[in-house]
Amino acid sequence: MTDSTVRIGPALVTGVNHVGLTVTDLERSIAFYTEVFECDVVMRQEKQGGYLAEIVGYPDADVKMAHLRLPGSESRLELFEYRSPRSAPRALEPRNVGNAHICFVVPDMDALYARLVERRVETFSPPVQVDTGANKGGVSLYVRDPDGITVEVFQPPPGRDR
After folding, report:
1. Rounded Cα gap, residues 85 and 59, in angstroms
2. What is the DSSP letter of 119?
3. How far is 109 from 137, CA to CA, in rounded Å?
4. Which residues of the chain are in CATH 3.10.180.10 domains?
5. Which of 10, 40, 63, 149 has its C-alpha lying 20 to 30 A from 140's C-alpha?
6. Tell me: the pLDDT tens digits for 60-112?
């Protein structure tokens, strides 16, 4: 939709409830996102079959899951560990179609980077100054979570908070 698009009728999409990631070890991922990125665990549950099996298309679906509140937001990060069917490995690289990432905003990249180094979190590089575009003057960094999922960390340019 462009700025010149006129909406007729009520909005069909009114917000974002959660972003979901499939992980190999739910407890390890919960520890990573709560300790490194200060997410809060809101809910945990286990689910077999039922509506879950229908929406994901796996009749034998059996998962452990958790919802984590994203800092500064009511949006959630949903972590799924499939006990059945087991996950198939795939190359999680930024260039690959379908590869997604979540981006955390931080006020102090140096402090967050020190935490990442202390916890031996794999980074793609040290923090990088954004030198062009809408985020010029900001600082960005890509890291990998315990499953190799890409996570971006972004410190906005001076005078911006997002």
Report:
1. 9
2. T
3. 13
4. 18-84, 102-155
5. 40
6. 999 999 999 999 988 999 999 999 998 887 888 998 888 889 999 999 999 99
Residue 84 CA to residue 48 CA, distance in Å, equals 9
* CATH architecture assignment, domain 18-84: Roll (3.10)
Enumerate the β-bridge partners of residue 139.
129, 155
pLDDT at 156 over 60: yes
Number of Cβ within 10 Å of residue 89's Cβ equals 8
As to burial, measured by CB atoms within 10 angstroms (0-12 exposed, 13-18 middle, 19+ buried), residue 119 is exposed
Q: Could you identify the residue written with the tokens 């991922």?
A: 29
Strand-pairing partners, residue 69, are 40, 76
Which pTM value belongs to this model?
Answer: 0.87
